[in-house]
Amino acid sequence: MLIKFSSSLSSVICSGRSCCAGLGLFLGALLLSGCDKKDDGPTIKDSPTLAVVNGEAITAADVDFMLERMLQGQASVQVDEALRKKILDSLIASRAMKQLVKSQMPADAIERITQTVQVYEEELFVNAYLQQFAVPEPVTGEMVQKYYADHSAEFGMASTREFEILRAPAVADEKARDRLLAAVPEITATTQWQARAKDWQKNYNLQYQQGRSQAGLLHKDLDQAINRLEQGQTSGIIYVDSELYLVRVTKIGEAVVRPLAEVSADIRKHLAAQVLRDAVKKASDEARAKAKIEIPAQK
């Protein structure tokens, strides 16, 4: 979240210009310098002042906070006086930059940054609230089984179709083409394609193939024709890239439901997201119920 905020803030200040590699550190210090410290506890308030930039103090607590941010997940880094001095130098530079740019910025730009800080602050508090009160219900095996039973249609596999295809390569001989077209009614009326395949290849140059429906296996026009046909039905002539096709569906297999073991991981992911949304909504509703909310009438 801090990194995300720094990126947003840098876009406001830099206005699209290239920023130096250490800008993330400077912006972190800028965030510190922009915070209202009047409500801080005694530990922060009593922290020793290490530098003063145009009347604004930079304290040891500021340095400690920046060190904590920088070294998250880097326990092996040794914190010594040299590192603390580098942090302090960065804080001084960022405080000076903040003061200088703020003195030159129009009021609406300053207000924009103030609003960004407020939104970011609210996000942090909301995240803290949700972590404490929006505890999602664990996804159990019973929940997975119930969802599987109630939504079995989601896990069904499409019915399979076994088919035969006759293909006539494009030919320039008009007589041969006319002879083939004249034979189409007889061919489509015949159910024994495999037995007649050799004769048709000899007489009409028809290529015979068998197959089983599979996404992407055939041209979309052939796929659509096969999916429209019932078992035992034969299509009309289909032209694909100047080639003539006839297709016949010989068998339609029943649609089957994928086994639970195959889909349980997907169900768990779906249910986990669902119970998290439910937990967030419940926590949100409880917060609203405890708040005094006034919405002025719109004029």
Tally of strands: 6
How many domains? The number is 3
The helix/strand series, from N terminus to C terminus, equals HHHEEHHHHEHHEHEEH
Strand content: 5-15%
Number of helices: 11
What is the mean predicted local confidence, pLDDT?
Answer: 83
Distance between the termini: 38 Å
Backbone structural class:
alpha+beta
- Using only C-alpha atoms, the radius of gyration works out to 36 Å
Shape: elongated
Residue stretches low in confidence (pLDDT < 50, at least 5 long) are 1-42
Strand order, biggest sheet? Answer: 4-3-6-5
Query: Biggest sheet, open or closed, and with what strands and sense?
Result: 4 strands, antiparallel
Which range best describes the helical content: under 10%, 10-25%, 25-40%, 40-55%, 55-70% or over 70%? 55-70%
Characterize the structure shown.
- The two termini are 38 Å apart.
- The strands form two sheets. A four-stranded antiparallel beta sheet has the order 4-3-6-5. A two-stranded antiparallel ribbon has the order 1-2.
- It is built from eleven helices and six strands.
- Helix 1 crosses helix 2, helix 2 (23-34) packs across helix 5 (81-104) and helix 7 crosses helix 11.
- Helix content is 57%, strand content 12%.
- The protein has helices at residues 2-14, 23-34, 42-45, 60-70, 81-104, 107-133, 141-150, 174-189, 193-204, 220-228, 260-290, and strands spanning 49-53, 56-59, 161-168, 207-212, 238-240, 243-252.
- It has 299 residues and is of the alpha+beta class.
